[in-house]
Amino acid sequence: MKFGKVNNPEEIDFSLPPDHIETKVLLSKFKKPKTPNIYVGCAKWNRADLKGFYPRGTKDELAYYSTQFNSIELNATFYRIFPADQFARWYDKTPNEFRFFPKLFQGISHWKRLQGAEEFLNEYLLAASNLKEKLQMPFLQMPDNFAPKGIDRLEPFFKLFPKDVSLAVEFRHTDCYNDPVVASELYAILESFNIANIITDTAGRRDLLHMRMTSNTAFIRYNGANQKSDYTRLDEWVIRLKEWVDERLQNIYFFVHQNIEKESPLLSAYFIKKLNDTFGTNLNIPQIPK
């Protein structure tokens, strides 16, 4: 994920901001889980991006990837709607506990900008439904120029979305979070439809760290800068996630990106070990070849 990349990451203050005041209020409405539901993954599984991750002789990258991670943030589905049989093959290649978090097709978010997108949405969902129970939470990434004047498009679109499929949304226009009136309206809409408000942690867009939960799910897209600070940033995320779980957060969906993607598995392995130590979970720690 090149979004938010800067030339001088060593000069960025990567500390997480305080929680939005309403996050604790929202989380208090849920039952505290014994153990949070945790999925951690990369954005891609292809060998070219994750160079060096696959053992020599690996014939099927997804089949191997899914033995190391329990999930994938599937960005390829943004660029085209794959046929149903392709989703079915992905389903068959992965273990029972594996989950997919595919990005919605760009025709919905960028071409139609949610308006008149029902045909695209139906085609996408019909194909993606072949992931069956492994379709955990598709997500919608709105373009940078989707300004607050477009907020009135949200409710009609959300009403089209099947109630039995959870959804997360990423907004990138700064006014969605920094204009208090706009943000309040946006959060209320997301809460009313139980939609996860994606938090994006990237160097050049610290304004997207809104720290405002709108459901019982923390969906985080983390973009490392290929710096030593990538690890201390993850340490801080573990602390914050523990605080949220203590406040009754139930789901943690965390996807690791890197400007140089081949380092994503290494960062992920570090993060997963920290999560296991903190929450007493037994998530598989990916094996990283020397």
TrEMBL record:
InterPro entries: DUF72 (IPR002763), UPF0759_sf (IPR036520)
UniProt cross-references to PANTHER family, sorted A to Z: DUF72 DOMAIN-CONTAINING PROTEIN, UNCHARACTERIZED PROTEIN YECE
Name of the featured protein: DUF72 domain-containing protein
Organism for this UniProt entry: Planktosalinus lacus
